[in-house]
Amino acid sequence: MGVVKDLGEHYLARNYRRFPVVFVRGKGSRLFDEEGQEYLDFCAGIAVCALGHCPDEVVRAIKEQAERLLHVSNLYWTEPQARLAQVLVENSFAERVFFCNSGAEAVETALKLARRWAYLRHGPDKTGIVALENSFHGRTYGALSVTGQPAYWEGFKPLVPDVFHVPANDLSALRAAVNERTCAVILEPILGEGGVIPLSREFMAEARRLCDEVGALLIFDEIQTGIGRTGKLFAYELYGILPDVLCLAKGLAGGLPLGAVLAREEVMSALTPGSHASTFGGNPVSCAAALSVLERVLSPGFLDEVRLKGEALRKGLLSLVEEFPEKLKGVRGAGLLLALETRIPAGELCEALFSRRILTTAPKPDALRLTPPLTVAYREIDALLSVLRELLSG
């Protein structure tokens, strides 16, 4: 680790707290450091490596596309981008797709789309955006402004104006915030960085009703919940409530940078030539990778298996809650996006798991987040649960 760590310490921006390990190879749910030690990955690049590390079909698609065409910009058509848009539209509520490079860019696009849509249809005064406290949407200015965690705002104000935050699942606060000046409501169906907190169906339905009532767009940020993570292709399917705009990234291209915004025709038509763009958005190689990911995720039985694995993990975690009630409180989430709610510091449990070469994340002091590859094996779930039991027994 010495040389790589020394180079990083000397040349990289110091804006990350990194674990003391250098990974050089990955396969499936396993990562390997430069000394050959094996790690079990229940982080998956923060819900990015949907099919695990270096899945054969995705690597093959990347290689084949890289040998043909790397980049031409969006001044021209490319087949992988058009094919990917087709797959996303045919498997969602949407009719049009805009591609970008990341989740934050997808959120920026959605916010710009909402304001421009409202401007074209209602005039310049309909600019309000309602978001949730404890939410996370990204680090760029628009995404940061709708992120409902003031700790992330420090030193970056003034933020984008006309953004109003309400507590998650608070119906009265939502009703009070949405009015005729509102152009959009943006929600994560499950607040990922907020500690894996699901929104109630009643709250989601009320957001839909209010948006319809005042002529606003309902935006779902499914950057973390999308592409099969909850056991459905998109989390909105769990609720039976359709958004107007959907943001995707993370697991979409299985490890390569790719973001997407999906919308109905009437909404996406607000983006006309010159109104918004992305130089690298919809890159042929990233789109080829995403096509391979979606082919697997949409294959018969795949999402059923994600739901079964999620239930196995949930049941195992709940048994630990029953066994160690003085240290654990409960389990939150859906599919393979779960949080073990802790009474002890979740960060310390995350560190202890790392010492046993198991990777997890702790987005909140009382939430250990588990986002393994969707291809995780049952024996690997059992291995995590076994180590957790040992650590909690100590």
Major sheet: arrangement of strands? 4-12-11-10-7-5-6
Distance from N terminus to C terminus (CA atoms, Å) equals: 30 Å
In helices, the fraction of residues equals 25-40%
From the 3D coordinates, which CATH architecture of the largest domain would you assign?
3-Layer(aba) Sandwich
Count the DSSP helices: 14
| Rg for CA atoms | 21 Å
Q: How would you state the average pLDDT, rounded?
A: 98
* Number of DSSP E strands: 17
The CATH superfamily name of the largest domain is Type I PLP-dependent aspartate aminotransferase-like (Major domain)
Broad structural category: alpha/beta
List the helices and strands and how they pair.
Blueprint: H1 2-11, E1 23-27, E2 30-33, E3 38-41, H2 44-47, H3 56-68, H4 79-90, E4 96-100, H5 103-122, E5 128-132, H6 141-146, E6 163-166, H7 171-177, E7 182-187, E8 190-191, E9 197-198, H8 201-214, E10 217-221, H9 236-239, E11 245-248, E12 259-263, H10 265-268, H11 284-297, H12 302-323, E13 328-334, E14 337-342, H13 346-355, E15 358-359, E16 361-364, E17 367-370, H14 378-393
Helix pairs in contact: 3-11, 4-11, 12-14
